[in-house]
Amino acid sequence: MTWITKIALKKRWLTMLIAALVAGASVWAMFTLQMELFPNIELPMTTVITVYPQAQAEEVMETVTIPVEKAIDGIEGLEHITSTSAEGSSIVFVQFAYGTDMDKVNDTIAERLDTLELPQQVRGLPAMMPGLDENPRLFPLNINMMPIVTLSFSGDASPQELQQIADTQLVPELKAIEGVFDVSVEGGAGEKVLVSPSVEQMTQSGISMGQLVGALAMQSYESVADVENAFLSPDGLQLKHLAEVSFGPSPGEGINRTNGKPSIGISVTKEAAANTVTTANAIIDKLAELEITLPPGMELVTIMDQSEFIEASISDLKNSALVGGGLAIVVVFLFLMAVRASLVTAISIPLSILIGFLVMRFTGITINILTLSAMVIAVGRVIDNSIVILEVIYRHMQLGERFKDAAINGTREVVVPITSATIATVVIFLPLALVGGIVGEMFIPFALTIAFALIGSLLIALTVVPALSGWLTVKRTGDSVRQPRYLRIYTSVLRWCLGHRVATLVISILLFLGSLALIPFIGTSFMPEMNSNVLTIQIEMPEDSDYSTVNGATLKAESLLAADPDVLTYSTTIGSGSGTTAMVSSIFGGGSGSNIIGIQAVVTPNADIDKVATRLSDRLDEIIEQGVVSAASQQAAMGQMTSGLEITIQGDTNEDVVLAGEQLLDRLESASQGDGGTSTGSTIADRRLAAQANSLKSLADLEIQTSNVQPSLVVEPDLAKMTTLGLSPDQMGLLQQEFMLMARGTTVAMANIDGTNYEIFLKGIMEDITTAETAKSL
User: Fold this and answer.
1) What 3-state DSSP class applies to 709?
2) Among candidates 267, 266, 301, 350, which has minimal Cα distance to 20?
3) Angle at Cα 638 formed by Cα 633 and Cα 642, nearest 5°?
4) Tell me: the pLDDT tens digits for 590-620?
5) How distant, in Å, are the alpha carbons of 166, 440, 489, 533, 612 from that of 536?
6) Pick from 774, 735, 741: which is nearest to 216 by CA?
7) Quick check: 683 pLDDT over 80?
8) What is the DSSP letter of 183?
9) How many of the other CB atoms lie within 10 Å of CB of 111?
10) Residues whose CB is less than 8 angstroms from the CB of residue 538 and which lie 6 or more positions away in sequence, other chains included
11) Which residues have CB under 8 Å from 701's CB, separation 6+?
12) Could you tell me how far CA 66 lies from the centroid of its own chain?
């Protein structure tokens, strides 16, 4: 390949001009590259989220989840369908084989969803719920479609007023920003006046749910006492005789607070192809404009800004690359002891890295923590070729050769070794392209980035370095070159190794085996731990806890956070989230339910977040005796969702599944404690069993998760008996409405209490009907 060097030496000024142009184009490419947290890869996963207000889990499963699963079944490349049917919502998570064209798949699913026959309450919900464009909604999953900015909108107003301002002023402006994919609003429900009827008292009084709705809707209320004293019949029957009245969120809804004030959460996600940093910065700039237009007392708090973390990570990696490059230049100078020769090699490092960025720009690879890590690794390798070329040219010139002859002869002398070494290093990373799954998808850009930088370094070493050598090195004449001290030391060590080859090989093998023994102490992980100043706290109260108990625990937790000097802001969610973000989080094990308290706290940048998490967790355990408290950094919480092994057990009945799960858990716990038994046999099978039993001792944090299955009431009208009783079709329809009220409840009226409007929500009674006999007596 010396012909490349000959061309570069023939017109050295042209070589320098081309190098300068390439460097300029590379600088442009570096500043226009997209910056992301992770590589921009396409996950072969998609989700269908359906909202079915107030519907019970079984009804959601029968009328929504199963039809959606059938619509998706049969699509080419389908591997798994996982669904979660909960009160008021259905989530169907679908996974396809890697390499599947997800754009085509999502189009197919969307077409099939449009033709599904679903309940009117589902199809008609977008017209009644602002911000919901379609229902069911197809939500393709992309690793870069996590919320890039999470906001909390709070102020001295009711949650309903906050949501109205958010829907009319904030959300449209944020959606109009280039690169924004979706803006979801969480919360806004606020407290309601809850009416909880007693099944026993309703049966004794002969009052139906429909009669309660009709009687309560006809009256006006200015206090809770007015609601309790509402008359239900002319004979003086009042609501307090057969129902309890309290404050709280309606079933399936949650309450949000920020720094102790009523609030709503706003999550902004970007388009898959959008630049995270650019889009997030545009959002923050827009928020500064919007804050000026808000009514007095309103506040927008940024809970999470992904761009800050990305910029900080990229800055750290840039600093590491600069320090590494500087150290490499210093080491080269110490060995060559020639300033101008060292400057030649110093030029090769940025040129090689810049060429790598240029190729990344045209191949669609983004700047992220993996590709920048690849560049940091490449910094120490790209200088090798230039050092070898420069040293051999330098040596030939010191022996008296003319510059051009020294450059050509020296390059010819080492071109084969450096080319083969570069190709061998590039080939080492090729197996990463064969790794399947998400690991392969993420590390292909890593491998390509190193390959681009190394190939660029080879081209620089064969062209730019020889061209610069004539200007920055000094020709010396002489028959020999003075050997530096380090070379004399190395020569003596080499002679000893050649004279003691067995000892040299034994030492090498021992060092190799010793390095393997360090692996358990070093540890392994899919992704490196990254710093984050967001703390996630979850408090799980007993399932039978009422709202006042849960709210009391929340107030204690908020008081503790408000007094902690390391906590800047905190956002609280009581109960289930009401937006798509909360529903998606449930796929990955996120908590939901009226007994769950979720808190996101932003701590000071200089604080040790792990110590803060431990301290807050311990203090919360002390003041909240009934709840189960967990606290971890946001990054650690994400790691808990993605690491380890998950085993799913399927069966015909819930009892069979639970029994099998408990048996498996017992055996794994026994094996992890070293009681699983080991084989002392001499056969290969015995040794394999012994190795398996020994490996099970490393299991930790074993946990069994089972669905909360509750018996449900099934009512099948006997049309023949109903006709015999003389019930008309209209009355049959009223009976169906009664069943719906029993199951879901409904808002019946408004109450103006102390100047604040509250919805009066009549809760369903289906959960309180524990036997068929009770239902028959209604």
Assistant:
1) coil
2) 350
3) 145
4) 445 577 888 888 888 788 888 888 888 888 8
5) 25, 30, 57, 10, 11
6) 741
7) no
8) E
9) 10
10) 591, 596, 597, 598, 599, 629, 630, 631
11) 644
12) 27
If pLDDT is split at 50, 70 and 90, which confidence band does 712 have?
low
Closest Cα to residue 183, out of 198, 196, 172, 194? Answer: 172
Asked if the model's pLDDT at residue 117 lies above 80, the reply is yes
Provide the mean pLDDT of the chain. Answer: 80
Helices (H), ranges, 33-137? 57-60, 66-72, 102-114, 120-123, 125-128
Residue linked to tokens 């909390």: 152
Range list of β-strands (E), 541-678: 567-575, 596-603, 628-633
**Is the Cβ–Cβ distance between 113 and 65 less than 8 Å?**
no
Residues 470-516: tens digit of each pLDDT: 765 555 555 555 666 777 888 889 999 999 999 999 999 999 988 88
Q: 179-193, 626-640, 697-711: lowest mean pLDDT where?
A: 626-640
* Residue found under tokens 């889990």: 57
Q: Which residues, other chains included, contact 591 with Cβ-Cβ below 8 Å and sequence gap of 6+?
A: 538, 540, 598
Write down the pLDDT at residue 34: 79
The interaxial angle of helices 339-363 and 437-462, nearest 10 deg, is 140
Relative to beta strand 45-51, strand 89-96 is antiparallel
pLDDT at 526 > cutoff 70? no
Instruction: Convert the pLDDT of each residue in 174-191 to its tens digit.
Output: 999 988 888 888 776 667
Q: Rg of the chain's alpha carbons, rounded to an integer?
A: 34
Residue 73, amino acid: D
Q: Can you list the alpha helix ranges (DSSP code H) found in 124-223?
A: 125-128, 159-165, 171-175, 199-205, 209-217
Q: Take residue 492 and report the two structure tokens written for it.
A: 């003596």
User: Which residue shows structure tokens 């004399």?
Assistant: 488
Spatial separation of the C-alpha atoms in residues 272 and 145, rounded to whole Å: 6
Q: Answer whether 123's CB lies under 8 Å from 236's CB.
A: no
DSSP 177: S
The SS3 call for residue 195 is strand
pLDDT of residue 571: 85
Residue 690 to residues 517, 603, 676, 677, 697, Cα–Cα distance (Å) = 20, 47, 10, 8, 11
Task: Give the whole-angstrom CA distance, residue 375 versus residue 379.
Answer: 6
Over residues 391-404, the pLDDT tens digits come to: 888 778 877 788 88
Percent of the residues in the chain that have a pLDDT greater than 70, as a whole number: 87
Q: Whole-angstrom Cα distance, residue 524 to residue 517?
A: 13
Which residue is associated with the tokens 């079915």?
52
As to burial, measured by CB atoms within 10 angstroms (0-12 exposed, 13-18 middle, 19+ buried), residue 392 is buried
Can you tell me the distance from the alpha carbon of 215 to that of 234, in angstroms, rounded to the nearest whole number? 11
What is the Cα–Cα distance from 66 to 82, expressed in whole angstroms? 11
Query: Dihedral, CA atoms, 186, 188, 189, 192, nearest 10 degrees?
Result: 150
- CA separation, residue 98 to residues 71, 441, 763 (Å): 21, 9, 46
Burial class of residue 211 in the structure, from the number of CB atoms within 10 Å of its CB (0-12 exposed, 13-18 middle, 19+ buried): middle
Indicate the pairing of strand 45-51 with strand 78-86: unpaired
For the entire predicted model, the pTM comes to 0.66
- 16/453 Cα distance (integer angstroms): 19
Which pLDDT value is given to residue 368?
81
Distance from C-alpha of 751 to C-alpha of 679, rounded to nearest angstrom: 73
The helix (run of H) or strand (run of E) holding residue 418 is helix 403-428
Distance of CA 307 to the CA centre of its chain: 14
Q: Which residues contact 120 (CB under 8 A, 6 or more apart)?
A: none
